[in-house]
Amino acid sequence: MARISTYPIDTKISGGDKWIGTDVDKNNATKNFTVANVAEYLNVSSSIDSQTLRYKFQYLNPGDVREPGTISFDPQLGSSVPFSSVTTWLLSQYSKKYVSQGAANDISSFYTSPLIGSQVLVTNTKDISKDKYLIELTKTFQRRFRQELINGKIDQECLLISKSLIKAYN
After folding, report:
1. Segment (H or E) for 32
2. In whole angstroms, how far apart are CA 51 and each of 10, 25, 28, 163, 165?
3. Which of 43, 27, 7, 128 has its CA nearest to residue 19?
4. What is the Cα Rg of the chain in Å?
């Protein structure tokens, strides 16, 4: 096997590209990991995303028990409905992040303050890479924290406000 430094750099990464690594659950066996699998793990575990609450939609049939880290309609509207027809939903008291990390911290107090009266952005995280979601998220942030300029662009002032909020809530 040649030295790693002699291999060409792949500048066009795709989901099927692979890394080699160690699977600690299989006695440290050497395994291949695809970019898509690593991205899915990071998305499900919320290992990178530390500031938002994530939930997985759960359709409930009569008698079903809601899973921790889920969002559901109340009352059930069906498995596929226009978002404009949703008037109420149920949020788990546990975010998907905390459920996946095994530390189920009760975050229900967040639902009353500061969430009530605030704007909430709901997105499909499987499609989060689309620019329109980042723009809408930025506009939502600006509506709440900087009403004088709502343009969907992250600038120095947005970053300074974000840093202050992170300090205040950490």
Report:
1. strand 29-34
2. 32, 29, 32, 12, 10
3. 7
4. 20
Cβ neighbour number for residue 160 with a 10 Å cutoff: 10
Give the tens place of pLDDT for each residue, 55-101. Answer: 777 777 778 888 877 878 766 666 667 767 777 777 777 766 555 55
How many folded domains does the chain comprise? 3
Find the domain containing 38 and state its range.
Answer: 16-45
21: phi then psi, degrees, rounded to nearest 5:
-160, -170
161 in the same domain as 127: yes
* Ramachandran sector of residue 97 (left: φ over 0; alpha: ψ -120 to 50; beta: rest): alpha
DSSP string, 110-162: HHHTTSTTS------GGGTTSHHHHHHHHHHHHHHH-TT--SS---HHHHHHH
pLDDT, tens only, 98-138: 555 565 666 666 666 666 666 666 666 555 555 666 777 78
Asked if residue 4 belongs to a domain, the reply is no
Query: Which residues face 20 on adjacent strands?
Result: 32
> For the whole model, what pTM was predicted?
0.41
Q: Are 93 and 108 in contact (CB under 8 A)?
A: yes
Q: Which two tokens stand for residue 85?
A: 């027809």
